[in-house]
Design brief:
Length: 135
């Protein structure tokens, strides 16, 4: 997992993009669920892009950014849950333990994407299943 000294391009914009993604993908999953999504973002740095922005904004990487998806227009200033997501993003970057065991993928337990067929999740929390063996 990436740490605070090796997250390339970390700035206010990348923190906001990460916080918006955490918020949109997992705001109903509690702090642990939000941290798990943050770990997936960080675990994708390098293979999926060199920065948080490249990873998160890659087409079809996170459903909340897909074209046609209703993206919540919230800001850090007007939403306490967004502020929580930003705090969680920063805490996750500083964490030494990845609660998802290196997961790069997750999905809602009520659907099974083709990439998850035949795979065993390594971390389950509320409605999300996380995987660290997806090619």
């Amino acid at each position: 997992m990436a740490g605070p000294n090796i997250v390339p391009g970390l700035n206010a914009e990348s923190l906001e993009i990460m916080a918006r993604t955490i918020y949109a993908e997992s705001r109903g999953e509690g702090e642990i669920g939000m941290k798990a999504v943050a770990h997936v973002i960080l675990n994708r740095i390098g293979e999926w892009g060199d920065t948080i922005g490249e990873v998160v904004l890659r087409p079809k990487a996170f459903s909340s950014w897909n074209e046609g998806e209703p993206y919540p227009q919230v800001t850090l200033e007007n939403n306490p849950k967004m502020r929580e997501a930003a705090r969680i993003a920063l805490e996750t970057m500083e964490a030494n333990i990845d609660i998802t065991d290196g997961s790069t993928h997750y999905h809602n337990k009520d659907i099974t994407p083709t990439w998850a067929m035949g795979k065993v999740p390594v971390f389950l929390y509320r409605s999300h299943w996380f995987y660290n063996d997806i090619n």
